[in-house]
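Narrative of activities, Objective 1.

The group set out to show that a structural description can be obtained from nothing but a protein's sequence at a throughput compatible with the screening campaign. Below is one input-output pair from the validation batch, recorded exactly as produced.
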Amino acid sequence: MVCNVSRIGRIGRLIFGGILVAWAIGQGPTWTWIGLVIMATGAWRFCPLLWTLGIRKVDDSRKRIAPSSRR
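Output recorded for this entry:
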């Protein structure tokens, strides 16, 4: 699976989703259980909505293509 959520996006999703789930547990509105889905997209670093729209938030420029040959 391709990661399409950045590190900051991942942390934000986990925090925001956790707040919504805590609110749902504390007798909040039913829609706040959507926080579980938000937390899951943060944990897996994959968002189906971003994938469908073709948006990728991860920077691949820091990945090493080939190992350096030091002598």
